[in-house]
Amino acid sequence: MTEDFISRARYEREVTAREAAERLLEQKSHDLYRLNVELLSKSDSLAIEVQERTRELSKALEAAQAATRAKDLFLANMSHEVRTPLTGILGVAQLLAESDLSQEQHELLDNLQASCSTLKNIIDDLLDLKSLERGRVQFRLYPFDPVEVIDSLVARYEPVATSSGNRLVHVTSLSSSRLRMGDRTRFEQVVANLLTNALKFTQNGTIEIKSCISDSDVTVVVSDSGIGMQSDQLERIFEDFTQADSQIAARYGGTGLGLSIVRMIMSQLGGSIHVTSKPDEGSSFTAVFPIVAASSEDFLVRPGGVVHSPSMSLQGKRILLAEDNRINAKVIRTFVAKHHGETTLATGGLEALGKAASEKYDLMIFDINMPDIGGVELLHRIRTSRACAINSGTPALACTANAMPDQIANYIESGFSGVIRKPFEAHEFIAGVAAGLAAK
Ligand SMILES: Nc1ncnc2c1ncn2[C@@H]1O[C@H](COP(=O)(O)OP(=O)(O)OP(=O)(O)O)[C@@H](O)[C@H]1O
Ligand SMILES: [Mg+2]
Predict the structure, then answer these.
(1) The CATH number of the domain where 193 resides is what?
(2) What is the pTM of this model?
């Protein structure tokens, strides 16, 4: 009886406990279900949010890409619009400089040429920045003498140095053969940027350029005793449109582009650039160019630093020029004639087509925008027409102010061996022609 009582009491306790456990389980599974529903709805709204955000981001990306395209297009159009008349001004000024002028006229003309060069440099800088940013710069390798380049820069900037009471010196470690294989223009551009900065930021002081040539590289150090910089400023000055501080533009002018171009050129050349500086003591920029010795037998260096190889001579070379701008045509003919070459001029694409059918040329130079048929179409017709078969293999150069990196890539794709960018100076034009003839 007592046992029965005990087991009944235990049974009831167990039943109560089981019921409690079942209630708890039910409660928990209910909670779990609720949480699960909440979680599902949260994950749904999260997915919607992510979708919305992704849509917003891709819209913003599209807008940014459209803005960049519009900016590129604007830059391309503007550069073309400015370059075309500048080609004429620069060319005529160069021709005038070679004619009989009085002392005063020469001085006026010097000013005109200097202003044109500055304008051309600014446009080149902006375009350079674009192509350097995209890593699409093509370096042109010719043998050149780095010491001669620096000496001619020193000669060019001597009057500027003197006018601000500065002493400008170039010290070089002599070497028996100084010819090096590299991109002379880029080398000069880097040194000129460092030198003009040193001159700009120094008054009544000294600017010293040291050049040191080894078998594998050329090191150029440009030191000045000018205003110098704080160490925290040194990190910023190689960025685009950045100057050491906000006073600089007001006091010294400039856009803060020079050193960013230098940095990009040096990095794409595989070289290096670094700076040390102290406020009020001066700055020292060191650029190391990886350029190797050239064999002087293959090339001939003319006085004045313009380098031609014997195969680049224009003696006896016949050039077909299609150019509708009268002034540009005259400038080009004169440049070619001065190098003993011969130009046949067509003032439009159709006339050029006729001339290409009747005579064989060594090189063809086509303006891209001509009223009847443009340079690209003209080249295509010459390359594919039977009538022009004699010139189907003649190398062709585009000569144009439409010279943004994408446009240059298009010309090359259309069969041009190279592009001469307008405006050009005489030596740039002749170097382009020489490269075009060598492309045969
Ligand atoms: N030799 C120097 N001495 C003192 N400060 C310098 C020197 N070289 C460069 N800097 C500082 O670095 C900044 C950037 O130089 P950078 O050549 O890029 O621009 P900029 O000379 O001001 O303008 P730009 O070269 O576009 O005409 C300068 O504004 C100046 O503050
Ligand atoms: Mg500068």
Answers:
(1) 3.30.565.10
(2) 0.55
